């Protein structure tokens, strides 16, 4: 099958693909092929190539795609959302919507593993952590988790690790149903006993690792959790409190009440409903638990000149280093949404937030007083924003009547209706809502927060929440932060394994359309017809492209897709009576999430060695299968391999594992090299997850959002993720069914229009050409740099897949220059570094993607060759390593322009090493960070303003 030519310069394929026809021919000639088809024939093993192109329909133009999206949006019915259950009406300030959510400077940034070029997003994430810490009254908060339900599951895991003797967890029956559904099954998966009971007043039982308490409850009740917290502490366990951040402006903080962990969802801090996500969950913990905290953690360190600088802290506890011993499998967080929530707090400040909380509470109190006048019973007299009204036998009639009036409220059961008030609720809303219950004009009520939990401790005291008074200040602050970073909007991000490619604006625009963004995730299907049609079409396309029978988009990150796939495999074996199949084979080169996910699925990890050519060592695989065959549940492989090659033996590996009764999990992280060319479900896979934030163009957002759909073969379809809102958490899910993974049925649905638009605009042939172009770009870079930096692994005909590993170990031995030195030096050329020391220490893994044009590829090649020449000067003895331009990189504008300069190399060599930088120079805001300092002196909230007073010494600051 020949790949299509790009004949229409206005097509989206032409807009998405960087090299034009002439540039492509230049690159092909350098690689040694006459055509793109010839290159693909040489690179891909013949036995994995598709014989019939997967079909997704003819390509649409951007205008046509947006018209289709508007047609889908028009099928949705947007009601005023008073439903609650963890998702609330909120108002996104326009300055934040435009300045963050819709700003490519924020949404195209990568995870801040290179801190010198990530100071803006790190500061914003630190503001999020500070906000959460101050609201919850606990000293250490992370930089977001994926959603509330899975965050509670993470808290349960944390409690079980910290209190190993207890093998039972108690979940408050008053938690939201989706939280119970996800947390209970995740706990059972790691062999914890689960008890679900109301924790409004007491706690019974022993052998407890911890409890999870609702504060407020799903039906609105606010009660004092202190007695339960004391009781679990008396039994040696830990207490997790699940809380609404807006309520904490009026309710006392969990930390003040004695909680060890606080968990919640920051959605109502300015993040649209998005039909369920993406929304940034959070977790805050005591000092005792900080080194077991899951997720990313931003800390404060210093740079080479002693100036304060931000970085990710305590990374040694994360999955990419500790693998099966990690605190979590979390890889993607919800950074963009955490930034949005943090900036919402900055924008409103503590007084503004308290005013919003008081207004929400006043509306709820007024509604309760008005309904009470009719003689109806309220379930609770103490509440924050949710009023539960008993209407025996009439709940659905009331809900339907209000739907006709334009309101979405919650039928808690046949006899009870819940009405949850949000930021935009008005007095008129109170009157209209109450009328459906037979009430008249709205009445004034008295605040009903119990005195025992009324907020007395101050919050949001840091100056960052008290200094932005105008939109001008906010606009400039957001611009200042964005300008400190390097994102895809101004440079190639050549990260191996992460596929930082163009995100289609035509799809990005759609996610904030009210008809998509303002739909509550638990709205009846009849109100979300457009969403369901779009999601159904997208899931069908993904199944077609991967060669699997079915796909679920519920997993809201690649890590969750991995877990969903492994749980499907585990439950399949259990359903077949193979309870002893509990071993997961994981290659030594695999992503750290693979091993961590296997552990969360209660599988034992057995590592498979890597052969000299970077492929799976078949002899070692045979030995492990001979040793463990009857116990093998699955093997996890990445294809193309993590080493950036198309392994010739992938079918053989799959056949060997199938022969002993195991299943094959193919990690879809590298699907950008295969889409339209090969199908993992067609060459041996039983299950894969995909990264929509990689291959299918959802932005990385500085570390999230992500979506990790799970795709399965026919025999695993019954084990796809279940609807969390319909789960019965009181008993384990039957063996022939799947378990919920995320808070909502369709996970982070709000960003799915982006991937839908990408596939619709590329079409089947365009997707195949994009994969081929990515392979061409990687081979072009490998060929151009092979004389400067050896390419560690190659596959068929000396070719790589869509990425290549540059080996610096020999140069390091000769010169002392490390891969980290090269990564930092690239900042001076205006580049984000390639992936550092993964999967092989002392190397750089480069993935250029199909989106980068020849000029940008050549700019990167020029930078790398220039750095190689700088290394050669050290090898030749012309420059000592300790006083080399590489050793001290990167350089700030201040460091090269101030009066004192005590280096042997010139300022020009430091800051402008190639002529092209003179017009487009990026200066990092800080010098190279002292990584160890930040872990030795752990500070995970915003430093005081005097820390940035540069008239003071570092010690004084």
From TrEMBL:
<dbReference type="GO" id="GO:0019464">
    <property type="term" value="P:glycine decarboxylation via glycine cleavage system"/>
</dbReference>
<dbReference type="GO" id="GO:0004375">
    <property type="term" value="F:glycine dehydrogenase (decarboxylating) activity"/>
</dbReference>
<feature type="domain" description="Glycine cleavage system P-protein N-terminal">
    <location>
        <begin position="15"/>
        <end position="436"/>
    </location>
</feature>
<dbReference type="GO" id="GO:0005829">
    <property type="term" value="C:cytosol"/>
</dbReference>
<dbReference type="GO" id="GO:0005960">
    <property type="term" value="C:glycine cleavage complex"/>
</dbReference>
<feature type="domain" description="Glycine cleavage system P-protein N-terminal">
    <location>
        <begin position="449"/>
        <end position="721"/>
    </location>
</feature>
<comment type="subunit">
    <text>The glycine cleavage system is composed of four proteins: P, T, L and H.</text>
</comment>
<dbReference type="InterPro" id="IPR015422">
    <property type="entry name" value="PyrdxlP-dep_Trfase_small"/>
</dbReference>
<dbReference type="Pfam" id="PF02347">
    <property type="entry name" value="GDC-P"/>
</dbReference>
<dbReference type="InterPro" id="IPR015421">
    <property type="entry name" value="PyrdxlP-dep_Trfase_major"/>
</dbReference>
<feature type="modified residue" description="N6-(pyridoxal phosphate)lysine">
    <location>
        <position position="694"/>
    </location>
</feature>
<dbReference type="InterPro" id="IPR049315">
    <property type="entry name" value="GDC-P_N"/>
</dbReference>
<dbReference type="Pfam" id="PF21478">
    <property type="entry name" value="GcvP2_C"/>
</dbReference>
<dbReference type="InterPro" id="IPR049316">
    <property type="entry name" value="GDC-P_C"/>
</dbReference>
<keyword id="KW-0560">Oxidoreductase</keyword>
<comment type="similarity">
    <text>Belongs to the GcvP family.</text>
</comment>
<protein>
    <recommendedName>
        <fullName>Glycine dehydrogenase (decarboxylating)</fullName>
        <ecNumber>1.4.4.2</ecNumber>
    </recommendedName>
</protein>
<dbReference type="InterPro" id="IPR003437">
    <property type="entry name" value="GcvP"/>
</dbReference>
<dbReference type="GO" id="GO:0030170">
    <property type="term" value="F:pyridoxal phosphate binding"/>
</dbReference>
<keyword id="KW-0663">Pyridoxal phosphate</keyword>
<feature type="domain" description="Glycine dehydrogenase C-terminal">
    <location>
        <begin position="770"/>
        <end position="891"/>
    </location>
</feature>
<comment type="function">
    <text>The glycine cleavage system catalyzes the degradation of glycine. The P protein binds the alpha-amino group of glycine through its pyridoxal phosphate cofactor; CO(2) is released and the remaining methylamine moiety is then transferred to the lipoamide cofactor of the H protein.</text>
</comment>
<dbReference type="InterPro" id="IPR020581">
    <property type="entry name" value="GDC_P"/>
</dbReference>
<dbReference type="GO" id="GO:0016594">
    <property type="term" value="F:glycine binding"/>
</dbReference>
<dbReference type="InterPro" id="IPR015424">
    <property type="entry name" value="PyrdxlP-dep_Trfase"/>
</dbReference>
């Amino acid at each position: 099958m020949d790949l299509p030519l790009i004949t229409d310069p206005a097509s989206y394929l032409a807009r998405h693909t960087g090299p034009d026809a002439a540039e492509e021919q230049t690159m092909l000639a350098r690689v040694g092929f006459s055509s793109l088809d010839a290159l693909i024939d040489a690179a891909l093993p013949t036995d994995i190539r598709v014989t019939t192109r997967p079909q997704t329909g003819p390509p649409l133009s951007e205008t046509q795609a947006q018209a289709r999206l508007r047609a889908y949006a028009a099928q949705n019915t947007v009601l005023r959302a008073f439903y609650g259950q963890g998702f609330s009406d909120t108002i996104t300030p326009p300055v934040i919507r435009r300045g963050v959510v819709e700003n490519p400077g924020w949404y195209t940034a990568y995870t801040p593993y290179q801190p010198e070029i990530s100071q803006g997003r790190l500061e914003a994430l630190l503001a999020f952590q500070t906000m959460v810490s101050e609201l919850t009254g606990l000293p250490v908060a992370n930089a977001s988790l994926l959603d509330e339900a899975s965050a509670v599951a993470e808290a349960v895991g944390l409690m079980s690790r910290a209190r190993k003797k207890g093998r039972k967890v108690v979940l408050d029956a008053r938690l939201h149903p989706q939280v119970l559904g996800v947390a209970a099954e995740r706990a059972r998966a790691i062999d914890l006993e689960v008890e679900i009971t109301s924790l409004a007043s007491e706690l019974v039982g022993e052998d407890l690792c911890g409890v999870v308490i609702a504060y407020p409850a799903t039906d609105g009740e606010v009660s004092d959790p202190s007695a339960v917290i004391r009781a679990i502490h008396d039994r040696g366990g830990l207490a997790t409190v699940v809380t609404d951040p807006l309520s904490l402006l009026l309710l006392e903080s969990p930390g003040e009440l004695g909680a060890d962990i606080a968990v919640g969802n920051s959605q109502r801090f300015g993040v649209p409903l998005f039909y369920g996500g993406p929304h940034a969950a959070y977790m805050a913990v005591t000092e005792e638990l900080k080194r077991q905290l899951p997720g990313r953690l931003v800390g404060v360190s210093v740079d080479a000149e002693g100036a304060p600088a931000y970085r990710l802290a305590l990374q040694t506890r994360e999955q990419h280093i500790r693998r099966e011993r990690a605190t979590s499998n979390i890889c993607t967080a919800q950074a963009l949404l955490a930034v949005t929530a943090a900036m919402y707090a900055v924008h409103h400040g503590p007084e503004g937030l308290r005013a919003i909380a008081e207004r929400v509470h006043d509306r709820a109190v007024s509604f309760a007083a008005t309904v009470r006048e009719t003689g109806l019973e309220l379930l609770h007299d103490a509440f924050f924003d949710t009023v539960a009204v008993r209407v025996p036998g009439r709940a659905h009639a009331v809900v339907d009547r209000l739907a006709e009036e334009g309101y979405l409220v919650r039928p808690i059961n046949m006899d009870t209706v819940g009405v949850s008030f949000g930021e935009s609720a008005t007095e008129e809303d109170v009157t209209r809502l109450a009328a459906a219950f037979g009430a008249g004009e709205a009445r004034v009520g008295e605040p009903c927060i119990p005195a025992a939990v009324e907020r007395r401790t101050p919050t949001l005291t840091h100056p960052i929440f008290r200094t932005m008074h105008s939109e001008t200040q906010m606009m400039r602050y957001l611009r200042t932060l964005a300008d400190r970073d390097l994102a895809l909007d101004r440079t190639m991000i050549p990260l191996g394994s992460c596929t930082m490619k163009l995100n289609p604006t035509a799809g990005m625009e759609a996610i904030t359309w009210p008809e998509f963004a303002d739909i509550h995730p638990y709205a009846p299907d009849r109100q979300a017809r457009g969403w369901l049609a779009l999601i159904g079409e997208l899931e069908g396309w993904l199944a077609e492209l991967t060669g699997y029978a079915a796909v679920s988009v519920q997993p809201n990150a690649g890590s969750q897709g991995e877990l969903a796939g492994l749980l499907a495999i585990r439950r399949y074996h259990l359903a077949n009576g193979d309870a002893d199949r509990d071993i997961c084979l994981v290659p030594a080169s695999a992503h750290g999430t693979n091993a961590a996910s296997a552990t969360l699925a209660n599988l034992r990890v057995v590592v498979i060695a890597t052969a000299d050519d970077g492929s799976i060592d078949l002899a070692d695989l045979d030995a492990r299968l001979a040793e463990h065959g009857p116990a093998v549940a699955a093997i996890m492989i990445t294809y193309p391999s993590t080493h950036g090659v198309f392994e010739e033996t992938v079918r053989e590996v799959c056949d060997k594992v199938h022969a002993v009764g195991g299943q094959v999990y193919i990690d879809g992280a590298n699907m950008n090299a295969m889409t339209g060319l090969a199908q993992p479900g067609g060459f041996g896979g039983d299950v894969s997850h995909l990264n929509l934030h990689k291959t299918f163009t959802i932005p990385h957002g500085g570390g999230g959002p992500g979506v990790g759909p799970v795709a399965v073969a026919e025999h695993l379809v019954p084990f796809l993720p279940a609807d969390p809102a319909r789960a019965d958490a009181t008993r384990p899910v039957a063996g022939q069914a799947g378990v919920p993974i995320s808070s909502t049925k369709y996970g982070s649905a709000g960003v799915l229009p982006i991937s839908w638009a990408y596939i619709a605009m590329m079409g089947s042939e365009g997707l195949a050409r994009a994969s081929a172009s990515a392979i061409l770009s990687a081979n072009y870079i490998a060929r151009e740099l092979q004389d400067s930096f050896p390419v560690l692994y190659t596959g068929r005909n000396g070719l790589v897949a869509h990425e290549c590993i540059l080996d610096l170990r020999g140069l390091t031995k000769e010169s002392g220059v490390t891969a980290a030195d090269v990564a930092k030096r690239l900042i001076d050329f205006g580049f984000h570094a390639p992936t550092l020391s993964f999967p092989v220490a002392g190397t750089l893994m480069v993935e250029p993607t199909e989106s980068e044009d020849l000029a940008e590829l050549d700019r990167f090649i020029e930078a790398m060759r220039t750095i190689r020449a700088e290394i050669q000067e050290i090898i030749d003895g012309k420059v000592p390593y300790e006083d080399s331009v590489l050793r001290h990189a990167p350089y700030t504008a201040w460091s090269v322009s101030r009066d004192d300069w005590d280096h042997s190399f010139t300022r020009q060599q430091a800051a402008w090493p190639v002529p092209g930088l003179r017009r487009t120079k990026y200066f990092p805001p800080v010098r190279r960070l002292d990584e160890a300092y930040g872990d030795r002196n752990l500070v995970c909230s915003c430093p005081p303003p005097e820390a940035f007073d540069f008239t003071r010494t570092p010690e004084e600051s």
